[in-house]
């Protein structure tokens, strides 16, 4: 996957229908504990507005200019992609760009994220980018009962001292 085809961009109000379309798919919604479901236009508008008011925290993920997903780094790093585009390295590429931007433009010392252990793809994305395991907790979500959640953390120093994390593998 080349960085040339995956890019981050700010979300704008005309992205609302596309965000609704992506986030209402159960394959996406089931692993996003904080995302309302059904995901209505009003939810998408709130998400876009938050991004507009907090530059650098929310990005649309574009693949060949089409909006295919989004990520946010509000409290924790979270990301999602239209299932049609899964398995091509797009999430890894997008999150890598977001981390690079974050650590080169701020002094933030760490980024937290996590995944439900059934969500192998998400765990792998974080692992490829240098996140390491912290605590595991059992939790219940709207879509998963008694799900095991693995928290992950990436330290700034690790990102800056391991150039290989910034490169495609
Ligand atoms: C998680 C998600 C963003 C991954 O997107 P993606 O673009 O397919 O991810 P990538 O292609 O960059 O990387 C996926 C990795 O997981 C691996 N993978 C995928 N399914 C897997 C499985 N069932 N078991 C083990 N590994 C798996 C892939 O092989 C790849 O690893 P590799 O590069 O070493 O081969 C996407 O599945 C998604 O949007 N899911 C729903 C929302 C979500 O779960 N968000 C994360 C919560 S924060």
From TrEMBL:
UniProt cross-references to InterPro entries, sorted A to Z: Acyl_CoA_acyltransferase (IPR016181), GNAT_dom (IPR000182)
Lineage top rank: taxon: Bacteria
Annotated Gene3D superfamilies: 3.40.630.30
Boundaries of every N-acetyltransferase domain copy: 6-157
GO MF term list: acyltransferase activity, transferring groups other than amino-acyl groups
Protein name: N-acetyltransferase domain-containing protein
Organism: Planktomarina temperata RCA23
